[in-house]
Amino acid sequence: MTTSAQLFEQACRHIPGGVNSPVRAFKGMDRPPVFIERARGAYLFDVEGRRYIDYVGSWGPMITGHADPEVLAAVRERLDDGLSFGTPTAIETRMADLICEILPSIDLVRMVNSGTEATMSAIRLARGHTGRDKIVKFEGNYHGHSDSLLVKAGSGALTHGEPSSPGVPAALAEHTVTLPYNDLEAVEECFAKIGNEVACIIVEPVAGNMNCIPPVPGFLEGLRRVCNEYDSVLIFDEVMTGFRVALGGAQAHYGVSPDLTCLGKIVGGGMPVGAFGGKREIMSRISPLGPVYQAGTLAGNPLAMAAGIALLSKIREEGFHDALAQRVETLCNGLQERADAAGVPMITQRAGGMFGVFFTEQSQVENFAQATSCDAEAFRRFFSAMLDQGVYLAPSAFEAGFMSSAHTPEDIQATLDGAEAVFASMTRR
Ligand code: PMP
């Protein structure tokens, strides 16, 4: 048997850090990453035959569990017709219709291949539409790795201690204004000074790349108001929250309508897909309708569309998201009870199908400064010990956790039993 440790060593020969995306490397976790062979439902199975209850779900897409039979069948059905044509196909229209039906703020939508492409293109569109260069984002929000957005970012950019990356030209970064999350006053102050130069505000309507931080009441509403006042474009990056916090995403959950929405993850059912869309007036500026250029050789790929449509169709079922949120609540309450009983300072935060665990004495975490002040060493011990208990959490204190409808009450109970043992071990030094 080849172990994960051996595979990691082999991987490091020709892949930077042995991984094709940095957070996978388990950096700072004092152990090599687990190599997964296959997955089904709520479970991952590693190359050494170990089973894990998975709360990463391929970083979000697997909202009905891994290897969903209906998603796989939809892909299989298209497979023999060919992988890509580079022409229009009817299935792209079906996807666009479906997205616009689920998200009423979207009149027109363009498919791309990743969340990064979605946000990068939405930013270009907002700049092209307004004729302004400056953009406003929030500290600890992650919107993919395009240059304008890799400034004080979350996720791997944060885990790896490089909130901004070398290689991002200062001349470009200076157009990106970064403000504290959940701080409407800071936004109002900024707009009072330079509002007429700001093309857009881009925001994670629930922050999921510095752990899980929901918006405080009035924050999203305030962003909407400020954008209206200054004719700036409000972009919700719903790559993570879309179809997860509620079917209609955070915009449905919190009742605030953005001008543009970025999608990814669930929309592709596990295939490499992203999308951006919104108001007809703005989206009509995209090529070939308008002058703002954006394109993609494999965009709207038929297999990817088939997977995404199958998944979206499945989660439209009445009550799906309520049941998902209920599972998250059971898990979070159970973790809280056990941490309290063991005397481990920990809180949880959640929104619909996503959640976060913070090792802190604070009663609430609302922004980047508070998120980064949590106990990193406690998280490392928790993560590693949970992995030994057969529970796969994101290998970073700055990532949200994801529930799926495949997680049974027994899976959640097993997770809580594991956590109880882990909390007990954490209070023993
Ligand atoms: N936006 C958000 C909110 C994300 O969480 C992510 C990825 N986790 C992205 C954008 C980038 O998506 P991708 O990794 O598909 O490029």
List the helices and strands and how they pair.
Blueprint: H1 4-14, E1 36-40, E2 43-46, E3 51-54, H2 69-79, H3 90-102, E4 108-112, H4 115-130, E5 134-138, H5 156-159, H6 170-173, E6 176-179, H7 184-194, E7 198-203, H8 219-230, E8 233-237, H9 249-254, E9 260-264, E10 274-278, H10 280-283, H11 302-315, H12 320-342, E11 347-351, E12 354-358, H13 368-372, H14 376-388, E13 391-392, E14 401-402, H15 409-427
Parallel strand pairs: 3-13, 5-6, 5-7, 7-8, 8-9
Antiparallel strand pairs: 1-2, 2-3, 4-10, 9-10, 11-12, 12-14
The structure holds 4'-deoxy-4'-aminopyridoxal-5'-phosphate.
Task: Explain what you see.
By secondary structure, this protein is an alpha/beta fold. It has helices at 4-14, 69-79, 90-102, 115-130, 156-159, 170-173, 184-194, 219-230, 249-254, 280-283, 302-315, 320-342, 368-372, 376-388, 409-427; strands at 36-40, 43-46, 51-54, 108-112, 134-138, 176-179, 198-203, 233-237, 260-264, 274-278, 347-351, 354-358, 391-392, 401-402. The protein has 2 domains: 4-67 and 318-427, Aspartate Aminotransferase, domain 1; 69-315, Aspartate Aminotransferase, domain 2 (3-Layer(aba) Sandwich). The strands form 3 sheets. The protein has a 7-stranded mixed β-sheet, sandwiched between helices. It starts with a helix and ends with a helix. The model has no long low-confidence stretch (mean pLDDT 96). 4'-deoxy-4'-aminopyridoxal-5'-phosphate is lined by residues 59, 114-116, 119, 142-144, 155, 204, 208-209, 237, 239-240, 264, 274.
